[in-house]
Amino acid sequence: xxxxxxxxxxxxxxxxxxxxxxxxxxxxxxxxxxxxxxxxxxxxxxxxxxxxxxxxxxxxxxxxxxxxxxxxxxxxxxxxxxxxxxxxxxxxxxxxxxxxxxxxxxxxxxxxxxxxxxxxxxxxxxxxxxxxxxxxxxxxxxxxxxxxxxxxxxxxxxxxxxxxxxxxxxxxxxxxxxxxxxxxxxxxxxxxxxxxxxxxxxxxxxxxxxxxxxxxxxxxxx
Length: 222
Ligand code: TYD
Prior knowledge:
- This protein is of the alpha/beta class.
- Helices cover 53% and strands 11% of the residues.
- The protein has 9 helices and 5 strands; from the N terminus they run βαβααβααβααβαα.
- It has helices at residues 27-40, 55-65, 74-98, 109-118, 124-135, 150-159, 171-187, 201-215, 217-220; strands at 16-20, 46-49, 103-106, 142-147, 192-196.
- A 5-stranded parallel beta sheet has the order 2-3-1-4-5, with helices on both faces.
- The protein is globular, with a radius of gyration of 17 Å.
- 40% of the residues are buried.
- The mean pLDDT is 94.
- Residues 23, 28, 50-51, 65, 81, 106-107, 111-112, 115-116, 164, 166 line the site of thymidine-5'-diphosphate.
């Protein structure tokens, strides 16, 4: 998988950044902080999330997150996540990038590879094959992986209120999620920036900013 800076017609597409990590690592906060920083530089990014990010995909999100941890089989989860992704990519992500707008997405392809493929036991191959049409060539240029010990993330999350179906899965599942993300990052070091997430949010935001500045030096040049 390589970055997709141009479409099939060779036109430039705006940068696409994704935020990934286990439960409670602070993705949403960091996505917001990065968006604010970009706005201070005159760049107005689209902030979005998966599963969700479009009306139809948000409806699928509600199905996915409700119920007992084993409510859906991993394979059913995969089809649901991809049903949501197909809509979100076609109606939100691709049009924004084509129009020159930066896209910041809270979770994307790597969550599927990890939650359904690795921790969920379906394997990376099946996930890659099934998700290709939904992704439609919209691969992230940069993926910020926020890494935190599992207990720390789950403790942060439980302080924030009642969790979703995924947060209630057993500790072993969450350990596999963390290892799975680190494994994917090691396979594609040029796309991933792995950022330790135990530091205060401002420190984490600064590290993320360095990674973004390095990767998009040309796009950010005045
Ligand atoms: P999210 O709202 O990001 O949860 P949190 O902010 O609590 O980390 O994501 C909801 C859940 O959906 C999350 O537990 C992971 C799961 N998920 C998958 O299992 N597969 C996927 O492809 C995606 C995008 C998310």
